[in-house]
Automatic annotation (TrEMBL):
Gene3D superfamilies, sorted: 1.10.8.50, MutM-like, N-terminal (3.20.190.10)
Catalytic activity: Hydrolysis of DNA containing ring-opened 7-methylguanine residues, releasing 2,6-diamino-4-hydroxy-5-(N-methyl)formamidopyrimidine; 2'-deoxyribonucleotide-(2'-deoxyribose 5'-phosphate)-2'-deoxyribonucleotide-DNA = a 3'-end 2'-deoxyribonucleotide-(2,3-dehydro-2,3-deoxyribose 5'-phosphate)-DNA + a 5'-end 5'-phospho-2'-deoxyribonucleoside-DNA + H(+)
Organism: Candidatus Amesbacteria bacterium GW2011_GWA2_47_11
PROSITE patterns listed in its UniProt record: FPG_CAT, ZF_FPG_2
NCBIfam families according to UniProt: PRK01103.1
Recorded family membership: Belongs to the FPG family.
Superkingdom in the source lineage: Bacteria
The protein's name in its UniProt record: Formamidopyrimidine-DNA glycosylase
Self-association and partners: Monomer.
Length: 295
């Protein structure tokens, strides 16, 4: 599933091409993937592109929003307007924007068998594809979308809180610290990849109970969470076995080249302390750590 840096990268790139365009028509190819009334969005101009945790929001005129949740295999592909030739018309390969779970749909002909919703714009087309049908598109008023129960239950993003507030949020839990970091009702936007790497940076064992962190450990962990998330955004997200991501230029994100522990089972710790990265399951997710420096 794309995490905060991956969705933020999608937002940044779509924000360069969507504002000012009008939605001429919405085609729903799979009812399960669409919620709301498409008529609310048809004919409306795109004002901007936002993000709430892992949900992408396309703002439209008239206080209407399109919310898109990628879940495990959702993806967006923006196809630029057709270029006219003296002989024929062809879609412009230059400028195609893609984001989400990587498949050949990013570079193949669209719509494909995985296309669930099509947004026909006055200049270009936006496709929502989803192999496993877990993701969704919702059209509704800005007020109703932002007041959806699951969005209201989201905790604050790490970028929106202070170190002291971070400590208060995590220290009241008796669960393993990694599970607390990934609990979207406590802190939103942190997923498996970045939780693993932040804990390594802070030298904290993923199994450590959150309420047992002492001294500067909360402060160091807070700094580490911010650090790996910013790095993830800078490198355009990660492409990994269970969290694949292709950035909006059709190229793989590069954060995987900077993994600290994630997906490095059996390799030497980057601190060269003699530790070997171990993997175990915690909360049903693959968890990586160095038993030497993360105690």
């Amino acid at each position: 599933m794309p995490e905060l840096p991956e969705i933020e990268t999608v937002r940044l790139q779509l924000a360069k091409v969507l504002p000012g365009k009008k939605i001429r028509k919405i085609e729903i190819l799979k009812l399960k993937s669409f919620q709301g009334k498409k008529e609310l969005a048809e004919g409306k101009e795109v004002i901007g592109v936002k993000r709430m945790a892992k949900v992408l929001l396309i703002d439209l005129a008239g206080d209407i929003d399109i919310a898109i949740h990628f879940k495990m295999t959702g993806q967006l592909v923006f196809e630029p307007a057709v270029q006219k030739s003296t002989k024929y018309e062809v879609p412009s390969a230059k400028g195609r924007i893609v984001g989400g779970h990587p498949t050949k749909d990013f570079t193949g002909e669209l719509p494909s068998k995985h296309t669930r919703v099509i947004f026909r714009l006055d200049s270009g087309t936006l496709y929502f594809n989803d192999q496993r049908l877990f993701g969704w598109v919702m059209v509704n008023s800005e007020f109703k979308i932002q007041n959806l129960k699951f969005l209201q239950n989201l905790g604050p993003e790490p970028f929106d809180i202070t170190g002291e507030e971070f400590e208060k949020l995590v220290s009241r839990s008796k669960r393993p610290i990694k599970l607390v970091l990934m609990d979207q009702t406590v802190i939103s936007g942190v997923g498996n990849i970045y939780a693993n790497d932040a804990l390594w940076e802070a030298k904290v064992n993923p199994r450590r109970l959150a309420n047992t962190l002492r001294g500067n450990q909360h402060k160091e962990l807070y700094k580490s969470v911010l650090g790996v998330l910013r790095e993830g955004i800078r490198y355009g997200g990660a492409t990994a076995a269970d969290a694949k991501y292709i950035n909006l230029h059709g190229l793989g994100g590069h954060y995987q080249e900077h993994f600290r522990t994630y997906d490095r089972e059996g390799e030497e710790c980057l601190r060269e302390d003699g530790g070997i990265i171990h993997k175990f399951s915690l909360g049903g997710r693959g968890t990586y750590f160095c038993p030497v420096c993360q105690r």
